[in-house]
Amino acid sequence: MRQSREEADAKSHGCVVCHKNAHDPHKQPGKPLAIQLGCTDCHGGDPCATTIEQAHVPSRYPTIWNSSANPVRSYTLLNHESPEFIQFVNPGDLRVAHLSCGTVGCHPNETLQVKKGMMTHGCMLWGAALYNNGSVPKKWPMYGESYSMHGAPQRLQTVPPPTAEETARKGVLPYLDPLPRYQASQPGNILRIFERGGRFRTEPGIPEVLEEPGRPRERISNRGLGTLNRTDPVFIGLQKTRLFDPTLNFLGTNDHPGDYRSSGCTSCHMIYANDRSPIHSGPYAKYGNRGYAAEKPDDLIESVDPMIPKFQSGHPVSHNFTRSIPTSQCIVCHIHPGTTVMNSYLGYMWWDMETDGENMYPREQHDPTAEQIVQAEMADPNSASVKGLWSNPEFLTELTSLNKHLEKTQFADFHGHGWVFRAVYKKDRQGNLLDKFGNRLEHVENEKLQQAMAIPLYVKELERKKPTLSLAEVEKAEQQLLDLQKGVPVHMLDVHLEKGMHCVDCHFVQDVHGDTKLYGEVRAAIEIQCIDCHGTVNDKAFKLINNRWQMRTSGPAAKEREAPQPNGRELSAMTTPFGKQRFELRGDKLYQNSMVEKGLSWEVTQVSDTIDPKHPKYNANAALAKTIRFDELGKFEWGDLPQDPLKLAHCNQTMSCSSCHSSWNPSCYGCHLPQEANRKMPDLHNEGDVTKNYVSYDFQTLRDDVFMLAHDGNVTGNKINPSRSSCAIHVTSYNNNRESIYTQQQTISAEGLSGIAFSTNVPHTVRGRGETKMCTDCHLSQANDNNAIMSQLLMQGTNYLNFIGRFCWVGCGDHGFYAVPVTERDAPQAVIGSHLHELAFREHYEEHEENDHILEHAHEHPGRDISEVFRPFKQPTVLTLQKRGEYLYAACGKAGVRVFDIAFIDHKGFSERVTTAPVSPIGQKFFVRTKYATSVYAPATIAPDPTRKHYPENDEQKVPAHYGYLFATDLYEGLVFIGAGTLLDGDPLNNFLEKELAFNPGGALDGAQSVKIVGNYAYVCCEKGLVVVDVTDPKKPCIVNVLGKEFLNHPHQMEVEFRYGFVCDEEGLKVIDITDPSCPIPVTALEFEDLHNVYVARNYAYLAAGKQGLIIVDVTNPEKPLVDQIFNAEGEICDLHDVKLGITYNSEFAYLADGKNGMHVLQLTSPHVEGNDGFSVRPEPKLIATYHLHEGEALCIAEGIDRDRAVDESGNQIAVFGRVGARPFNYQQQRKLYINPVSQEPFRVETFSPDYRIEFPNLREDLLHQQIESYYGSARQFRE
User: Fold this and answer.
1) Is the pLDDT of residue 926 over 70?
2) What's the pLDDT at 924?
3) β partners of residue 421
4) pLDDT digits over 468-492, tens only?
5) Which terminus of the chain, N or C, has less C-beta within 10 A?
6) For the residues of 252-314, what is the DSSP string, one character each?
7) Burial of residue 470, with CB atoms counted within 10 A of its CB: 0-12 exposed, 13-18 middle, 19 or more buried
8) Which positions ≥6 away from 1096 have C-beta within 8 Å?
């Protein structure tokens, strides 16, 4: 640092002979160097050598480092290189940064901070994956990634170690250990194949010659857990599957646009060309997306290195460090749930495998070779890519050339992980595209889609010009922009990015470097929050302190100091690379200057101004939202601020800003993780060993129409916050004989909550007026048309996102049941006969078409076992089915309740794939005798386990006791309680089902036909009507209400969605109000003949109406149901007994039990159905597949897994959340959103929008204010 220019030159003189103009990367355009460094100060090597071989430090693997570019997918290669070579190729690598970047006088603090930062150790994903799937008992992460100078995995520690309070309150961890070898792990979910037993000692790779044909007895180990292959698949996935990898410990994979970067410090501070969008890349967009170096000097680059090939991928744009880091550099990593899915900030989410798929799959079906599969999955962990064109690197690189041909969306120019990202547009609940003014757009042409993508460029340019324009010119330019947006869809990128804000404009030095503490979750390490820039309803963000205005951070990681020293970082003292203050006051307005784009700035709106009617920034809707509350009489009150801020409905202390200000939230419902024992792949961590077993990462249903709220984690104050599904996994495994040893199984978390996981998050999708959440998105609407929206919001589920999977289970009365394969086995697992099937499996689709849509294969079981010999007059009649995990529950009439082992339903080694018991009757009892079982029901299709151990530090809620039971109805015994917890504990020695209680006091439940568990209540359809039974204590149930024959005539089936129940009886469909679930109230009825069953999904009820076929009823307003359509496939559906729905990728399907006609599959939606991405898309049924029974009648379909249900109607949490302390709302908290605290009756709200036909903004806002007053009452005086 203090050496002379001559000394520095001496360390470079041999280097510049070849590299010529390559200069110190600290040199900034137009500025003199502040320090004197030579090449070898950072890179090492010999500056006096006269040959390349002597000057350069040699690699131990020269065939891999065969050019100056970063090698493709190098991963753990750096762990095997010498420190000298690592420093030579990248002085910023964290193994050696302490020798280069981190020396005294340079950046020692920053180097240490980054080494212990979240972007390096990545503990949040590992911790969540392991805990959520039962692999480790503790919710705070235990493992993180870090390597020593010589590539050895090492423990990280917080010094000094945190107190228990600091861990609980701030999320600071004492240490993180390296990820253990999966070979020594123990499975957290003991599926049948992991259970004890097995006749033979398994030999990996060697088939057992004594195995019985058709009845494999070989287990994955005949010893204890953790031996042979009895290890945890989750650890295998973390070691081998590219999830959020690579972390800063390794180079980027450098194989796709969006994957080019270095490692360590230079991961961020040296820019690579990843994205041609000027919105994402700012001034770096001109360098392309191929990871090329700049060809010639320009306004950003003073010189270029002649030794760097200009058309070779894997090079930085130039040999320059910068603090002007564009969003495109951040998005290289932040596209995965483990890295918070920040592609939403750009207005993109993962492509759904279907939309505009005609351009993405080959014209002829591609059946890849084993080599092609391996090559594709090394580039893209989603095995579906091998079926598509995007597995071709050149196709993917130039994917945006398709944008001019697309009909429904536009694709992004970045492709991290080899993925495709689609644009998200503003739409109404029916999925119709809207323009900025809320106008519905019909038949949007491609030109308009492209125009929508360009609008942010105009917005940013306007922000750039504003400081030079007069007020009149600004108003004229803003009106021109509004005119430009008329009739154009709205691309839903975050408004901050639209203005020109890159990630570094909000996340400052501590957020990106860390502070040397180990944090257990991402947001625990963040020091900024919205109010630090925008202020609150009471105060502006900037305050005058000691005659100097100041702004300070106040987030979870903001530095805490002893009084009177202020907490947090002073933002007003920070500067941009262009020499300006980051924040500056211009008059009474706060402006922020860009860190990335010179000359760009924008006004930072203050919240307190938006609620002041006298201020030009006044926003009537904002004022309503920020000041509304109930008065002591239970009436709306708004306009002013009460002395106690907790009286506000939406106060900062209890609610995050993003709860209202987010426009959408990306959700991933279901990731299929199939493991293959015969796939030999390298570990992506530690030593990088190449071993057998590989898990691909096949994401499935991707939606942008779902918005949910929950309580955030402890670190962020348990505030109300957006939540999403992001880790709802299903696991499959194939052994060395390519036999499926378990298929699409859900998991259970460490403390018993279902592994169908959710997480609170900050969506980073803030938008302007009319594009964020409004009153009727979270509260009961005056029109009563958002019942399904409320059910989704509160995470009670909507039955729309259910997972049927590969097999549809069909009950056939006296003829047992069938497991019908309805999807392809390989990814994408398209439903046979569907639109996606036609795209990805064209040959199979054509064969299916030629075969008249007939499904030819199924696995049948008669529903009987050997014990029937002793009960000759109690033959089973399968009346209802429910599949959960590896078991199928069946109500079998006189034979009572049966449980069938279906663990090996897809195992080709079994001749009988469904069994009543894998052992003799002495070792297992999978039946319960009742007089005449009519139905069996588990409280949840997911599998929470109330018997597991709890740890206080996990701060987890207990699973209610009744979730450990099966509930059966019997014509004579009423409601039967069957303890089923032993089916979830992985111990085969206690699988003895017992009838713990038969509940039928005084014959009140005689003639019981079915039961529906609604929170803590069981709704039983029986002769007396609908009987409500409180099952909070399963050992002491009690009847709390009866809705009798005055409204219901022999009810036989019921469905529930939020505040309403839908009951089938002999007269038709009856609707009841269950706002108080203990007291159902009659509402209305629709008359139908021969109604067998009802299934409600979002805004439609699907009725199995016998000879009439499928009746679809619009229940958007449940109190005014309307018949939407009747579908019978031109008479082919004429004996319909049951209907269930399931979503596969982005299309909805109905599975029908059509009596004598067998089982049908209908495709209800597809990308070609108008509004397919909407919340309430109108179904357009199409018969795509039929399975004809050999004998008997199809009477019932097993319901799919609820993937959007985290909590029940009584507020009981049933699915795990990914943050310590995060959880869904409990019963009382749910009711606050729709029950008046004084009257205890439902309250309703109305949403009002500005009338953009009014030209002048102030008049437009005055009218909006008057409309709001007409409903919510006169606004109180804001300030005296």
Assistant:
1) yes
2) 85
3) 350
4) 999 999 999 999 999 999 999 999 9
5) C
6) ---SSTT----STTHHHHS-B-----HHHHGGGGGG-SS-PPPSS--SS-S---TTS-TT-SS
7) exposed
8) 799, 1055, 1056, 1057, 1062, 1102, 1115
pLDDT digits (tens, 9 = 90+) for 886-923: 999 999 999 999 999 999 999 999 999 998 877 777 78
Give me the pLDDT at residue 874, please: 67
- Both tokens of residue 1197? 């379909």
Q: Residues 319, 25: contact at Cβ < 8 Å?
A: yes
CA distance 438 to 441: 9
Q: If you write DSSP's letter for every residue of 60-124 in order, what string do you get?
A: S-TTTS-SSSPPTT-GGGGGGS-HHHHHHH-TTSTTTTTTTTTSTTS-HHHHHHHHTSHHHH-HH
Burial degree of 707 (CB within 10 A; 0-12, 13-18, 19+): buried
Q: Which residue type occupies 378? A: M
DSSP state of 626: H
CA dist 1184 to 33, 800, 822, 1216, Å? Answer: 69, 19, 11, 36
Instruction: Look up the pTM and report it.
Output: 0.96
Closest CA to 506 of 569, 461, 459: 569
DSSP E strands, 865-986: 880-884, 887-891, 897-901, 927-928, 933-937, 965-970, 974-979
pLDDT tens digits, residue range 1171-1197? Answer: 999 999 999 999 999 999 988 999 999
Q: Are 121 and 157 in contact (CB under 8 A)?
A: no
> What is the Cα–Cα distance from 136 to 185, expressed in whole angstroms?
10
Classify residue 1051 by its DSSP letter.
-
Q: Which helix (H) or strand (E) holds 238?
A: helix 233-240
Q: Which residue has the higher pLDDT, 1276 or 822?
A: 822
Residue 1258: Cβ within 10 Å count: 10
**Packing angle between helix 471-485 and helix 446-465, nearest 10 degrees?**
170
Render pLDDT for 111-139 as a digit per residue (tens, 0 to 9).
999 999 999 999 999 999 999 999 999 99
Q: Residues 1234, 788, 1073, 753: is their CA dihedral positive or negative? A: negative
Phi, psi of 822, deg, nearest 5? -115, 0
Dist. CA 475–CA 228, nearest whole Å: 72
Quickly state the pLDDT bin for 1279 (edges 50, 70, 90): low
Query: Which residues, other chains included, contact 380 with Cβ-Cβ below 8 Å and sequence gap of 6+?
Result: 390, 391, 417, 418, 419
User: Model confidence over 213-223: pLDDT tens digits?
Assistant: 888 877 888 88
What backbone phi and psi angles, to 5 degrees, belong to 1245?
-125, 170
pLDDT score for 1191:
87
Q: Specify the pLDDT at position 987.
A: 84
Mean pLDDT, residues 1261-1268 taken together = 96
Give buried/exposed letters for 1050-1082 (b at 16+ CB in 10 A, else e): bbbbbbbbbbbbbbbbebbbbbbbbbebeebee
pLDDT band with cut points at 50, 70 and 90 for residue 873: low
The three-class DSSP label of residue 177 is strand
Q: What is the pLDDT of residues 639-651, one digit of tens each?
A: 999 999 999 999 9
pLDDT tops 50 at residue 1280:
no
Q: Which position has the token pair 């206080």? A: 952
Look-up: residue for tokens 């857990």?
225
pLDDT class for 605, splitting at 50, 70, 90? very high
Left (φ > 0), alpha (ψ -120 to 50) or beta: where does 80 sit? Answer: alpha
Instruction: For 804-816, give one letter per residue: b (16+ CB within 10 A) or e.
Output: bbbbbbbbbbbbb
Cα–Cα distance measured from residue 751 to residue 746, given in angstroms and rounded to the nearest whole number: 15
Q: What angle do CA 11, 17, 19 make, to 5 degrees?
A: 90
In the chain, where the domains are located: 437-489, 502-614, 619-648+1248-1280, 660-800+1227-1231, 807-1197
Buried b or exposed e, range 249-270, using 16+ CB within 10 angstroms: bbbbbbbbbbbbbbbbbbbbbb
On the question of pLDDT at 436 being above 60, the answer is yes
The total number of residues written for the chain in this structure: 1280
